[in-house]
Amino acid sequence: MPISDCHKNHTDFGQVIIFAAFGSWLSGYGLAVIIATVGQPSFYASLGLDPDPISPGYGYTRDIIATVQGIFFAGGAFGCLFAGAVGNRLGRIRSLQLSVVICVVGAAIQTGAVAPAMYVVARFVTGFATGHVFATMPVYLTEVAPPHSRGWMAGIHGSVVNVGYMTAAWAGFGTYYTSSSFAWRFPQAILIILALCFLAGTFYMPESPRWLVSKGRVDDAWAILQRLHQGPDSTDDSFAREEFRLIHDQLAKDEQALRNDGRWQLFTKPTYRKRIILSVMVVVGTQNTAILVITNYNALFYQSLGLSNSEALLTSAGFQTWAVIWGFIGLPLSDRFGRRQMLLVGFISITCVLTIATGLISRYNQTPSKGWAAVSLAFLYIYVSCYTCFIEVNCFTVATEIFPSHLRAQGTGISICALMLTDLLWLQLAPTAQATIGWQYYIVFIVLTTVHAVYFWFYLPDTAGLALEEIDQLFGKDPATCLAEDQGSHEKNEETLQIEKQTATDTPQVA
């Protein structure tokens, strides 16, 4: 019986979700804290930068701001690649703990920076750590979640990342009226607080059972599966035992494939190459919707619609809060309707709404009025509702779960690295593009979103409800890695039989 048809009740994941949420919160806040920084006059005074756009020295200021934006995502790209290697060697939890320590160091330097060079170096360090956490969290959540609820458990990463953006937006608004350096240093310090909270939580988070099995720690893996993947009215551990058998069999084949094909099989074997392309298309597609450009420059955008500085900051905070609400609304829909349907609805609706919003912004630029500004703003709220509800809660789940266990950390790291590099591209182009072609910049994103929607229509399978080990079969049978008929009528090797016998008689109790 396939694992997806087994008992669908499981024990409470509240503890895992609460502690893991701090990692996603940390990721989102690390990405967004610059929004609460560059709008503060005291930031420029503390670092000796000229804030006057018409001053001869403002060119240097503009270069520094562009550098602190870009260097963060460059560090994030390296952090993503590093996460793949470290996650497989040290485990998901130790990998996260290492990244958090690095984040604390970088955030402390950021908070106390007294010169532009000091702040730029700190941004690279925090970018590296944030990218590491950002790439590892969906891997961890995907691997500890049971098949039937993996959509909302892994999808919560994207939703809580929005909480980080919301926190940064409200921190920026709350400190706007403070004239001292506290106005920009306090938002940096919040990053340290979040990192320390997450570090404490990691000591209460179980390790990935799939990673434990890959390292031969089968007893520890069984204890975690029995604790987290057993229904409250189950008396024979059938759900956990069946999943444990699938994990063990799959990893045995993965190890054999690794010995035969080496670590470059992600690019050399067609079944894996298909997955890395799909994973990159999914995560890069999220950024090709213009979400980061709108989010990171929304305060300036609102000012262009006629709002004052304080009104723009308040509207930006409200925008991020609205995004959080719709992100959590979308969580339970992922497993109910499936990842494919949710992403298709998201990209198609984003294409339509962004097209209308771009037209309205164009009309406002031609004939400025509060009416056109209000309608444009309303469609941006509809836009972010579609994005967070349908796309963000599903993209990281799909980009992670389609890889086999031995390539999941590596594949996800490469995909999130591509996301970081895409962010770097769009953010570096945004100021110049908005100053030269204005609203026409968004036409690029409309075209790209349409391309992604068409691609997903033809190539994106639905993975909802399947065990991670069953997803292999969606990408074509590979004798070295699939669980299907390659062992005849489901023959079990001697080691698997011994493990099943042990788990049937010795059921480790986990407090």
TrEMBL record:
Residues that span the membrane, as ranges: 16-44, 64-86, 98-118, 124-142, 154-173, 185-205, 276-300, 312-331, 343-361, 373-399, 411-429, 441-460
Record InterPro entries: MFS_dom (IPR020846), MFS_sugar_transport-like (IPR005828), MFS_Sugar_Transporters (IPR050360), MFS_trans_sf (IPR036259), Sugar/inositol_transpt (IPR003663), Sugar_transporter_CS (IPR005829)
Region (Disordered): 485-511
Biased composition (Polar residues): 499-511
Keyword Transport: yes
Cellular component per GO, a single term: membrane
Record-annotated Major facilitator superfamily (MFS) profile domain positions: 16-464
Subcellular localization, as worded in the UniProt entry: Membrane
NCBIfam families linked to this entry: SP
Record-stated family: Belongs to the major facilitator superfamily. Sugar transporter (TC 2.A.1.1) family.
Protein name per UniProt: Major facilitator superfamily (MFS) profile domain-containing protein
Protein source organism: Exophiala mesophila (Black yeast-like fungus)
